TrEMBL record:
The protein's name: Phosphoribosyltransferase
Region (Disordered) location: 81-124
Domain of life: Bacteria
Domain TRSP: 135-271
A Pfam short name: StiP
Residue ranges of domain PELOTA RNA-binding in the record: 588-667
InterPro entries: PELOTA_dom, StiP_N, TRSP_dom
All copies of domain Cysteine protease StiP N-terminal, residue ranges: 311-561
């Protein structure tokens, strides 16, 4: 609020006139503090209020202070409808001088007298401010910063409440000049979680005349020297409506830059507060200093794509850090893609397989599998989510690896909402074997969230190739961009290969989302990385198959699993606690099994061995399969695998002591001549 100003041809009037439409009228503030007073500029002359007001007001102001400016204080705040020239308007007699005796004021006029005797000792509170969290918006305050503050506020308010005296009923939170948002949030959280009446204001460098009169907004003023070593030199600072307000305690909230000897000096702010409150507390927020190094970034990256414009998921369920390539023809016949991939002529991410369209029999298998395994999946979702919330971060940023990880990421987000009432941000990014993770997506995440809060999510592990790919890609990204904090650990629903520490189960069972392609993944294709389509400053690409909406079961799958949360919640939490207490280090036994199978079957290429139910299903849907190895005695988890194998003429071979439920083998020496006229696989 600016100070009073005057001039030869104009003057500023600080008015309490409540007349509607009158410049300078006052309005109530939604904040629990003094009314907001407004300035209005008028030519020298009388205001539009009752006759005699200007003359009486002038004499009253002059009686207040010999240095008072020529201004008029209209004390008809409670009167309405006054206008210039109205016949005999109502008037209120103004005293020739203001009342000199201080008037106790506060909530319902029940303010206590200022304490007498020695000033109380200032009690310093350690709020345990989160490391790296900005103290305000000077250097930017992103949604991720707000989420971290939201998560930390309850604990900080509790520490503040514990430091208050037991008999404190009225508490004032006093911010420090521009440090307003954090103290206000602390005040709100303290009032929300306790029975204390909390008021809030900040100190300021703006001088305002204080008049101890019931009709005046600024009743008292504390003056103290600046204590933050300001660039413009020393000067006076002010705190209004704190003195004489009858607060049981005043909490001064300053940043560490302002925690100087001047703050604690005999004439400093804390001493001035101690003269008017029986208890004074000090909370110091670390002053945020951004990293000096800011890596070069490409031009502004676009915001995430969201449904329904991109994908059939609701917009709040996931944001896709991808570019839309729906208008580009990328599909190629499966046999042509396999020949190009194995000959080294193309990478698998440069094209897309033709989307498999399931017949009625296969769709019935999907729905039967979903009905059978929904509770099992729900419990695994609960276990992995509880593990993440306990070990990784209280409010993690879920980043699923598109596209198999995306339904799992959405389910984890739904569990956090159901069990803990928190909304976790969730994004989907592209990772490509042999090419790494989308670096531009990482740059976007680092610009909007703390990398330490990011948790990568996938559906399941096979032999652990993507786990290794992610670790290597993040290491290279850290070297190239200088951005640190991303953890290479992946949270998965199922980890049959023992490749990660954070999982819902290590059993190899059917996850129905593996049965289908885009129609269970929001109608999104697998991701594409091709130089003529994806530039150095672009996200990786993908397609949205809008034309398949009639067979889309993406939301059906999510809803069926989410509906089982209540019945598995207790068991999931117990299992998560048990897992947290044991050694979950990866053994990589799946990788060893794949090496053994590759040698035993003469394949000698681990990329052509796809272990697990999910990976075997992908082989049958997208690649040219050679054969399927099934564990002896495997039951209904393989019904859909047997059906797909039958449709494609692929033999299913039962194997004893197989560490996975099944393993899919891609044709090891594929050429066009390796399939018959009907396009089915042949035996070598």
């Amino acid at each position: 609020m600016g100070g009073i100003r005057g001039g030869a041809t104009s003057w500023w009037r600080w008015s309490t006139c409540g007349r509607r439409g009158t410049p300078g009228g006052w309005r109530s503030s939604p904040v629990r503090s003094a009314p907001v007073w407004t300035w209005s500029r008028r030519r020298r002359g009388r205001c539009g209020c009752p006759r005699g007001c200007w003359r009486k007001g002038r004499s009253w102001w002059r009686g207040t202070s010999p240095r008072a400016p020529r201004q008029v204080l209209c004390r008809l705040r409670r009167r309405r409808g006054c206008s210039r020239g109205s016949p005999r308007p109502p008037t209120m007699a103004l005293p020739s001088k203001p009342t000199r005796r201080p008037t106790p004021w506060g909530a319902r006029g029940t303010a206590r007298q200022a304490p007498t005797g020695p000033h109380p000792e200032v009690n310093r509170i350690d709020l345990r401010w989160p490391a790296g969290l900005p103290d305000g918006g000077r250097h930017g305050f992103t949604p991720s910063h707000r989420e971290r503050l939201e998560a930390a506020l309850p604990e900080m308010a509790a520490r503040l409440a514990d430091a208050l005296p037991p008999d404190a009923h009225r508490v004032h939170i006093l911010g420090f000049e521009e440090l307003m948002y954090t103290p206000l949030r602390l005040a709100h959280e303290l009032e929300r979680t306790t029975d204390v009446e909390v008021r809030y204001s900040t100190t300021t460098r703006s001088p305002v005349l204080a008049v101890d009169d019931p009709g005046y907004a600024i009743r008292t003023r504390l003056t103290f020297p600046a204590h933050d070593d300001p660039a413009d030199g020393p000067g006076e600072r002010y705190a209004y409506n704190v003195a004489g307000a009858g607060f049981d305690a005043v909490v001064a909230v300053v940043d560490s830059t302002a925690d100087t000897p001047a703050l604690h000096a005999p004439d400093g702010l804390l001493a001035r507060l101690a003269a008017h409150a029986p208890h004074v507390l000090l909370a110091v927020i670390p002053s945020y200093v951004p990293d000096a190094y800011v890596p070069e970034r490409p031009s502004m990256l676009p915001e995430p794509l969201r449904g329904p414009a991109f994908s059939s998921y609701a917009p709040e369920e996931v944001g896709w850090l991808l570019q839309d390539l729906s208008d580009v023809t990328l599909e190629a016949p499966t046999e042509e893609r396999e020949e190009a991939i194995q000959s080294g002529g193309a990478h698998y991410a440069e094209s897309l397989p033709v989307e498999y369209q399931p017949n009625e029999q296969y769709q019935a298998l999907f729905h039967a599998a979903l009905e059978t395994s929904a509770a099992r999946i729900a419990q695994a979702v609960g276990v992995v989510t509880e593990t993440v919330l306990t070990e990784r971060a209280p409010r993690p940023v879920l980043v699923s690896l598109a596209r198999a990880g995306t339904p799992v990421g959405i389910l984890m987000r739904r569990w956090a909402q159901y069990r803990h009432g928190i909304d976790l941000p969730h994004y989907a990014v592209s990772i490509v074997r042999g090419r790494g993770i989308d670096a531009n997506a990482l740059r976007w995440l680092a610009a909007h969230h703390d990398p330490r809060d990011v948790v990568f999510v996938d559906g399941w592990t096979g032999k652990g190739a993507i786990t290794r790919e992610l670790a290597q890609a993040l290491e290279e990204f850290e070297k190239s961009d200088g951005i640190t904090g991303f953890s290479p650990e992946i949270a998965v629903l199922a980890d049959p290969g023992s490749c990660v520490r954070t999982y819902g189960t290590r059993e190899d069972f059917l996850i129905p989302s593996a049965c289908l392609n885009s129609t269970v993944s929001g109608l999104i294709s697998r991701t594409v990385l091709r130089a003529d389509l994806v530039g150095p400053h672009d996200f990786h690409g993908a397609k949205f198959y809008r034309e398949l909406a009639g067979t889309d079961v993406s939301v059906t799958f999510l809803d069926a699993v989410s509906a089982r949360f209540p019945e598995v919640a207790d068991a999931a939490c117990v299992q998560a606690k048990e897992l947290l207490a044991v050694d979950r280090s990866p053994t990589w036994e799946g990788w060893a099994a794949v090496e053994r199978i590759s040698d035993e079957y003469g394949i000698h290429d681990m990329n052509l061995v796809k272990p697990g139910v999910g990976e075997t299903t992908r082989v049958l849907l997208r690649r040219v399969p050679w054969k399927v190895l099934a564990r002896a005695g495997a039951g209904s988890d393989l019904d859909h695998v047997r059906l797909l194998a039958e449709q494609r003429g692929v033999p299913v071979e039962e194997v004893d002591a197989l560490p996975y439920t099944c393993v899919g083998l891609i044709h090891p020496r594929y050429t066009r001549g390796a399939t018959g006229a009907d396009g089915k696989a042949v035996t070598l």
